[in-house]
Amino acid sequence: MKKITLLLILYISSLSIYSEISVKSFRKLDLISSAQLRNQFSDISDDSCSYICIATNLTDFSYINCGRKSIKKTVQSNGEIWLCVQTGITEISISHPSFGTINNYKFQIPVEKDLVYELVLNSNTEKPLVPSEITSQWLLIRPKPVNANIFINKILVKSGEYTGRYKPGTYSYTVEAPLYHSSSGTITITDQNVELNVELEPAFGYIHISTAPEEGANVILDGKLLQNTTPFKSAAVSSGEHNIQVMKELHQVATKKVYIDDDKVTKVLLTLEPNFATVNLKSNPNATVFVNGQPKGTGAWTGRLNAGIYSLEAFEEGYKSEKMDIELLEGETKVIDLKLTPILGAAEITTNPPGAKIILDGKEIGMSPQKFDNLIIGEHMLQLIKEGYITTSKKIIVEDKKLTLIDEVLSQGIPVKIKTIPSGANILIDGVEVGVSPYTCTLSVGNHTVNALQNKHKVEKTITVTKDPQNNNFELVLVSTQKNGTGTVAKNLNIDMVLIKGGTFTMGGESSETAQFNSMPAHQVTVNDYYLATTEVTQLLWKTVMGINPSKFQGDSLPVDDVSWNLVQEFLVKLNAIIGKKYRLPTEAEWEYAAGGGAQNRTKYAGTNSSTELPKYAWILENSNNRPHNVATKLPNKLGLYDMSGNVWEWCSDWLDKYPSNHQDNPTGAVTGIRRVNRGGAWRFEAPSSLVNGRGGYDPGSYNNRIGFRLAMSK
Questions:
Q1: CA distance to 108, 140, 155, 176, 275, per residue, from 184 (Å)
Q2: Fewer Cβ neighbours under 10 Å: the N or C end of the chain?
Q3: Last residue of a domain, one of 199, 219, 243
Q4: Is the whole-model pTM more than 0.70?
């Protein structure tokens, strides 16, 4: 019995000696997030994980397990072992060949998903190879900006937020980032975790550069040519001294040194000194004027030339050309008149029977027979008109120092009236230009070919002249119009209009809601009924009327762009002459009323109150791919109007000015001003620019690839 008792004591003693490790503590770590550990465990596909850090200097454990729950991955590092474990484990067993075993240690707190825990081991051996425990605390440094570099004891430890364990003591730190002042100091770690937030002060500012008396100069900053021209607003620029140069053709280079303060805007105005002379060259109205052999214009030309010697010339058929050389000096203005002297010839015109009206180049000059001694040499259009006789139209040539003889036998004919819609078209009969519609003449019985031309539109018609005077009135239609539902459709011009029922609404709003110009104060406005185009004016419509396409982004169904307010006025005159309507630009009040949906249940954007829903209704920076898009490819607002927000800014008729505060009826804006209103935002701008009460403005002569317009018409 004593022997058995002794063996049992020896066995228990051996277990006590063998089990020299134990759990000192188990706790949750709040300073470390699971996101910081995922890089170490990136190969674990299951996201239902928790993380345990075993703090120990021991290595070469026999095993570590968590009962029936799995350990998904183990990562060994200096002084600690990291475990990625299945969420919900309740116990852990650890065995070491030299320091014994911990069996089924029960956790006192639950192990939850995506949280981080620390298990600290004690090692009780009298001869440990390394200390069984290192006293340390966690250090967390959060920098701003978030990508700043963090140095501990002059060693780079991380770019961005940093977490690490440190023994008690004092450590130096430095946080630095480009364009910011660095921040340095010391950290003392004792018996608690340390959390440090470091916000760096800006070491940058901004430059706003303008030039006078003109903008549009190229900007060179510290020897680097920038993409934008003046007026120029820079991105962040390092604080301190910088060299600025501005350059513009025909001007001297302007240079200035500026000092940029931290987090401030430095405004710089540089004066452009002219390196040119201004030339105002005049001649006869139809003469072509040349500078150094290059044609510059017809009748007159005004422009800038560098200082130097130039050859000037004016030329017109039938006139003696004029030439002269001039020397131009910087800053001077010269007015030069190259008046041309006609070269004259003579013509004698007779008819049978006599008494025909003589019309030369569209101007009546006498009755046949008659001699003319002072005709300009060259080609002329002659018409001989006598009631009851066929009008004779022919080209004649007058030569220098010669008498041109014209003898015409007039044939009896039938009176004919030719009318065009619209009127004012040039009329050609049988290939000869005879006048402007409405046009009356005498033609022979039979078929004749009539052409009418106006503003790039042309129509040809074969007419049959008979002896019955009732059948000799003819009409040619250049552009026909027809009704289609609520809109007016101009054939070949694609103008769809909707009737906007008038009403009263609140125009403008708080300044924080607008992107381009102060829309305060909000005020009541009443508008009458009017028509508004469903889409912005397309390039097809513009080309049909004007004959050319100024747009940067080409496409028939794209909105026309690169059109100034002044050029739009020319377009409206020509369009109305073609189709006999009175199209115009909408007033600013009409535009905002229609964009918001009328008088009731108005929306902040055209079609929606939500900026997140706006891309369904508008082409803006978020979805445009840096270009405009075909009209009517997004949802319309509730009045059936497309692209009132986004695609291109739209000109309005008003001058841009501050709003009145009182109620307004059909306001048309200020009497005069500097900029004309544009509305609606564009493809290159973010959502706030597309607010229906947002305002913008440009000089009426300016244009760019973000500005177009839409048509309006009074009821």
A1: 41, 15, 13, 9, 53
A2: N
A3: 199
A4: no
Residue pair 520/552 in contact by the 8 Å Cβ criterion: no
pLDDT tens for residues 9-19? 333 333 333 45
Residue 411: the pLDDT is: 85
Domain edge (last residue) among 454, 477, 500: 477
- For 667, residues 6+ apart whose C-beta sits below 8 A from its C-beta are 525, 587, 588, 589, 654, 660
- Rounded to whole angstroms, the Cα distance separating 237 from 206 reads 6
Compute the half-sphere exposure of residue 514: CA atoms within 13 Å on the CB side of its CA.
20
Residue spans of the chain under pLDDT 70 = 1-19, 31-47, 68-69, 78, 123-133, 456, 478-494, 510-518
User: What integer pLDDT is reported at residue 518 of this predicted model?
Assistant: 66
Do 366 and 416 contact (CB within 8 A), yes or no? no
- What is the pLDDT, as a whole number, of residue 13? 36
Residue-wise pLDDT tens digits, 698-712: 888 888 999 999 999
Smallest Cα–Cα separation from 61: which of 34, 35, 118, 100? 100
CA distance 646 to 302: 38
Contact 577, 594 (CB under 8 A): no
Closest of 528, 537, 499, 546 to residue 587, by C-alpha: 528
Task: Quote the distance between the C-alpha of residue 216 and its chain's center.
Answer: 18
- Judge whether 378 and 411 are in contact, CB under 8 Å: no
Per-residue confidence (pLDDT) for residue 631, from 0 to 100: 94
Q: What is the pLDDT of residue 41?
A: 67
Name the CA dihedral angle for 148, 149, 151, 154, rounded to a multiple of 10 degrees: -130
**Domain match, 684 and 698 both:** yes
Contact 675, 697 (CB under 8 A): yes
DSSP 240-289: EEEEEEEE-TTB--EEEEEEEPTT-EEEEEEEPPB-EEEEEEE--TTPEE
Q: Return the closest-CA partner of residue 604 out of 639, 664, 645.
A: 645
Radius of gyration for the chain, computed over Cα atoms and rounded to the nearest angstrom: 44
Burial of 489 (0-12, 13-18, 19+ CB in 10 A): middle
Total domains in the fold of the chain? 6
Q: Is residue 517 situated within a structural domain?
A: yes
C-alpha distance across the termini of the chain, in Å: 123
The boundaries of the domain holding residue 523 are 487-714
Instruction: Give me the sheet containing 155-159, strands edge to edge.
Output: 155-159, 149-152, 169-176, 183-189
CB atoms within 10 A of CB 349: 23
